[in-house]
Amino acid sequence: MPRPLADYGLFLREFRRTFHTTGAILPSSARLGRALARYVAAEPAAPTAKIRRILEVGPGTGAVTTHIAQRLGPTDQLDLVELNDRFVAHLRDRLANEQRLAPVAARTTIHHLPVQELPGEGKYDVIVSGLPMNNFSVELVESILGACRRLLAPGGTFSYFEYIAVRPMRAMISRQAERQRLRGLDHILGELLAKHEFSRQAVLTNMPPAWVHHLRLDKATR
Length: 222
Ligand SMILES: C[S@@+](CC[C@H](N)C(=O)[O-])C[C@H]1O[C@@H](n2cnc3c(N)ncnc32)[C@H](O)[C@@H]1O
What we know:
By secondary structure, the chain is of the alpha/beta class. Helix content is 40%, strand content 21%. It has helices spanning 3-17, 19-22, 30-36, 65-71, 85-97, 138-151, 166-172, 176-196; strands at residues 53-57, 77-81, 108-111, 124-129, 152-163, 197-203, 210-216. A 7-stranded mixed β-sheet has the order 3-2-1-4-5-7-6. Helix 3 packs across helix 4 (65-71) and helix 7 (166-172) packs antiparallel against helix 8. The longest helix is centred in the last third of the chain and has 21 residues, at 176-196. S-adenosylmethionine binds at residues 21-24, 27-28, 57-60, 63-64, 81-84, 87, 114-115, 130-132, 144. Residues 21-24, 27-28, 57-60, 63-64, 81-84, 87, 114-115, 130-132, 144 line the site of S-adenosylmethionine.
């Protein structure tokens, strides 16, 4: 089966099986992948000898991973953290066999666990997250953001996406408890963006359309 069809099939199956953590029917589009991977490329003024460490959280079938891989410098290291065992098996297969990923396979490590359990502090220069935060409880989102803060190096970039207007639309058709959860997420994510966002991009051609947020979680403002 051609690669994109196999990826879509697996994604759809996992959406049905584990809706809560998969969070989308389709993998991210190429435009969304490019927007998310924007700050993976080293800035032109950065010292070329520096080994940079990049973390992708929730790579799924690898739709964003291919865009990250294209932007890695020759010595950069890529870590992927994914909790779904079927996606992990799929990623291992892609890294071993696919032309776009095989060149970075030796510099890529897959961690099969939730990001909250990934050990380390200040390890990563860039974190790119594909997590469906709007599906999660307020406590889980706080714990995931706490892990990303701990893992990100001072001055590092944290990029994530969310579907446009998804919280207000869900709130309109939800019961009280769900509306309360959505208000809690609005509060946490709104505060995070107000303090740390330095750039955002709307990707209107994605299904559904999405915002990509880029943040700097500088030590002084964490
Ligand atoms: C919306 S999908 C995004 C997949 C891919 N990045 C894309 O954009 O097509 C969310 C992914 O996050 C993974 N995931 C959910 N919660 C996670 C967690 N706490 N730690 C690591 N991965 C998680 C899911 O298994 C799924 O692969």
